[in-house]
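Hey, quick one: can you model this chain's 3D structure?
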Amino acid sequence: MSRALSDHNLRAHSASLFAALGDETRLDLLAKLTGGVPRSISALTEGTDLTRQAVTKHLKVLEDAGMVHSARVGRESRYALEPKAIDDLKAYLDLVSAHWDDALSRLKTMVESDLD
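Sure thing. Here's the predicted structure for all 116 residues.
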């Protein structure tokens, strides 16, 4: 795969991840899942003012974005963080950071050459 295509795919995928993260409730749910132990909807609802239905809707958004996955255990679904999604976000932010570092380096060179 070419770098340009890879960068484009990374940007497109990252957009859906950032959109899913654009809600405080979903950020809270992800924080609860960072321990590495899959958790039920009931466990994720504990300590919140949210209904199970509201938590389920937020988990669906996160699952559609690939940030969590679920597995049936008996009569309930258990949700777990999908670490690859976090790695994808980090890769995108590293790409953006590299572009900015390059642009700032060019600006510095231009400014320094104008001072000479």
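One thing worth noting: Strands lie at 39-40, 68-73, 76-81.
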